[in-house]
Amino acid sequence: MTDTPEPAVAWHVATPGVLVVTLQRPRANALGLPIIEGLTEALDSASARGDIKVVIVSSSLPGFFAAGADIKHMATVDATSFTAYGDALRGVLDRLAGDTWIAIAAIDGLALGGGLELAMACHLRVAGNGARLGLPEVSLGLIPGAGGTQRLPRLVGRGRALGMMLTARQVPADEALTMGLVDRLVPEGTALEAALQLADTLLEMSLPAQSAVIRCVDAAFDTSLEDGFRFEVAQEQRLFEEGEAKEGITAFLEKRPPKFS
Ligand SMILES: CCCCCCCCCCCCC[C@H](O)CC(=O)SCCNC(=O)CCNC(=O)[C@H](O)C(C)(C)COP(=O)(O)OP(=O)(O)OC[C@H]1O[C@@H](n2cnc3c(N)ncnc32)[C@H](O)[C@@H]1OP(=O)(O)O
């Protein structure tokens, strides 16, 4: 009787409103089809539930968050499949990066190539002290093709992004914190625990308002300052009229915690 292999991705509701997605594809969480399909199913499950406010992406493999796109598989595909697989990977990362939820990457171990691109598609990143982050694609004759050339400079600035991508170097977690590539640095092996604590804080806030912040911040990189201000005002107005602002304001005046949906 052959044991059925463990799925490449597992997920569970850790606490109400918080979905933990666990990458568990030996030996390095290479982002092949099993992980792309697993991530897609996990996000489909979160969407279907309708009550998920925070998605945490973590790894159960010691020493690895994810080592990037599956190079072994890459060696076997033609250009058409390469593009198709790339589109599939970019598609699931774009879903993660959307405003439906707040996504946190809990990084212990190596986050390289597509693995770091996966982490950068998340809104926030928590890294354990031993983590190392890099985009080594130029060492393969490629570029970070799952959003890395666009998301990294937006996080750390042009100079640091070029320095990382042109040299393929791995950045230790403490340096990544000073660069703004990670948001919290925690003891090695505790990134998931810290991400769950961060999720508790996020859950106290209004998700419609947080989603509007995400839309405004993303707009800031794609529009003029003047148009960005206009977009911000429109979001603020909509939240005041239709959102949870009345509950938030009332709760403050009544000196009680707000009851957001
Ligand atoms: C559906 C997708 C299919 C893929 C084809 C199409 C892809 C389309 C992509 C388009 C979008 C681009 C996305 C992205 O930008 C591109 C990339 O991510 S390219 C890959 C970038 N990552 C790397 O270059 C890291 C490669 N790995 C390493 O440098 C080292 O393995 C390590 C991570 C530094 C660890 O080193 P060690 O501790 O010495 O361990 P090993 O090297 O022995 O590795 C252990 C074991 O894991 C295997 N492995 C490691 N990384 C990968 C990987 N990225 N893909 C596949 N397999 C990997 C390694 O081969 C070892 O396996 P074993 O030899 O024991 O069988």
UniProtKB/TrEMBL annotation:
Query: Which reaction equation describes what this protein catalyses?
Result: a 4-saturated-(3S)-3-hydroxyacyl-CoA = a (3E)-enoyl-CoA + H2O; a (3S)-3-hydroxyacyl-CoA = a (2E)-enoyl-CoA + H2O
Question: What top-level branch of life does the organism fall under?
Answer: Bacteria
Which GO terms of type biological process are on file? fatty acid beta-oxidation
Alphabetic keyword roster: Lyase
Entry annotated with the keyword Electron transport: no
What InterPro entries has UniProt attached to this entry? Answer: ClpP/crotonase-like_dom_sf, Enoyl-CoA_hyd/isom_CS, Enoyl-CoA_hydra/iso, Enoyl-CoA_hydra_C
| Pfam families linked | ECH_1
| Single Gene Ontology MF annotation | enoyl-CoA hydratase activity
Known EC number(s)? 4.2.1.17
Q: SUPFAM superfamilies this protein is in?
A: ClpP/crotonase
Q: Which family does it belong to?
A: Belongs to the enoyl-CoA hydratase/isomerase family.
Per its record, how is this protein called by name?
enoyl-CoA hydratase
